[in-house]
Amino acid sequence: MTPVSTQDLQIWSNYIKSVCGNHIDGNKAYLVENRLFPLMQETKSTSWLELYSKVKSDLTGTLKRKVINAITTNETSFFRDSITFELLQYKIMPDLFDARQKQYSNGEIPIRIWSAACSTGQELYSTAIIISEMLEGKRQFDVRLLGTDISDNVIAKASYAKFNQLEIERGMPQARLDKFFIKDGNLWKIRDEIRAMATFKLLNLLEPYYFPYKFDLILCRNVAIYFTEEDKKKLYSRLADALAKDGFLIIGSTESIGDLCPKLKPFRYVRSVYYQLG
What we know:
Blueprint: H1 6-20, H2 29-42, H3 48-57, H4 62-71, H5 82-103, E1 109-116, H6 122-134, E2 141-149, H7 152-160, E3 162-163, H8 165-169, H9 174-180, E4 181-184, E5 187-190, H10 192-195, E6 198-202, E7 215-220, H11 229-242, E8 243-251, E9 264-269, E10 272-277
C-alpha cells in the first residue's frame, strides 16, 4: 500500500470534508489509506493524487459516492445504548403521546420522528419497535419515521430491512425477535407493519434541506463527533429549525451541545440527557 503523504492527506482531508463533513486531521492518515486503498486498486490508480483526480473528474458521481460509502463510519446495532431507549420508552414517547392527544382531539394523531445518520436502520427500527409495543391496540396514532444518511449503501440496506444473524445478535432480545421479525433464508426480515412505518432517503446534514413538517423527535447520535466546531454549530442549528416547538432531540451519550446552539436547552432524565427548544 502506498503511504499517504502529508500533502496528499491535506488534499483528501479537504475533499472528504467538502462531500460529507467528516474532519480528518493529520493523525488519521491510516483512515484514508485503509478505507480508500480498495478504490485505488479498483480504479488502477498508481498514486493518491491520481485517485483524487479520477474522483474529481468523474461526472457520473459514482466515485464520489464510493468515497463517501468508504469513509463514513456506520457503526450501529439494535437498541444501542440501552439508556437511550429507556428514555424513549419511559419519558419522551409518553410525553409526546399525551401532548399530541391534547393537541389533536379528533381524527388521527400524527407523530413524526427523524433518525438522522440512520446507517443501516437499526436505530430507527428499534425506535419503531418500542413505539409499536407502546401503542398496541391504539389505532388513533399515525406514526411515521424518516431515516436519512449520506451513504447510499446503508440507505439501501436499511430500506431492504433484512439483517444477518450477527446483526440480530447485537442487541435484539429474543422476545422482540420472535414478535417483530420473520426468517427469510439466512436473514431476518422485519415485519411489514414495522417496515411500513419507515421511509429512507439520502441526505447530507451539512447541506440545505427542507421538510414539510416539524419533527416531534430527532435522533442524531454520534454524528457531530466527526465534525469541526463550525460544522457542529451548523448541524445543531439546522436540527433545531427542524424540531417541533415541544419536540425532543437526542444526541450521543458522550456528546454535549453546550453553547454550540443557544436555541437548544439540555434536560436530564435519570441517567439520560435530551434537548428541547428553549
